[in-house]
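Appendix B. Chain record.
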Amino acid sequence: MGRIGDGDIHAAFVEFRAKESDKSVRAKNTSRQRAHLLECPAYLNAMKEHNPDNPILHEAVNGTPTQHTPAKTPKKRDLDITISGFQGSTSSAPQTFPIPKPSLERDFQMSVQLNPKISVGPGIWGQRNWVSFISGHWNGRWGKGTVVPGGQDSQLIAPDLSTHIDANYLLQTHDHPPAFITVKMDGWRVGPRDVLEKLEDPTQIDEVDPKTYSFRVYVHMETGDTRYLHLNTGMWIGSGVRRGTEVIYDAYRVS
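Structure tokens predicted for this chain:
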């Protein structure tokens, strides 16, 4: 084949584009275009500099076009493994091993008498209220005792009246001598606005059905007393209700 000029290359492109709508002609023109480009040093030099992976350049150098392997469509089983988080696992164990499901067991109940809330005012995160504790009592599967006066709940009120709970309590057991256990609760009281408004009104609190709002907290406990060290590594989820000037929690241990 003789040397092909730039004019011939341009003509091949023009003819190819003009007949591009005809799929039966397109394949023939693609082959003709490739032949012209293989004979064009300027095109091949440009590809060496800017696109060394170009298939036409590969054919000009090696004599055979590059083979493109189509992307593999993942099978459903592969997708299931990926979703389950086992993709790429190096373990030789079967990938269908069961992961234990946690369960909840009612572990203890706590009732606390509250002082009237103090409004700290609107802060950068929202309305802040301060609620201190008068006293209380608790009992459960691992003991019973009282709530030491002086704990507090630093509440943050969102614009929709949802309330973030950040409370700290100190429990005293009925042992002799007694043990002391710190309790930290963190969670939310949420619900319809009209229900939450009633919960802020001491004259209407007792009229509110606990099923009309959600009062859920995480519970963490800590102690240095050797009789209750098992509490340090426990995990609890609490459900609360308001009654008059009292808040009552049921705590469920996660096991």
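Further analysis of this model is presented in Appendix C.
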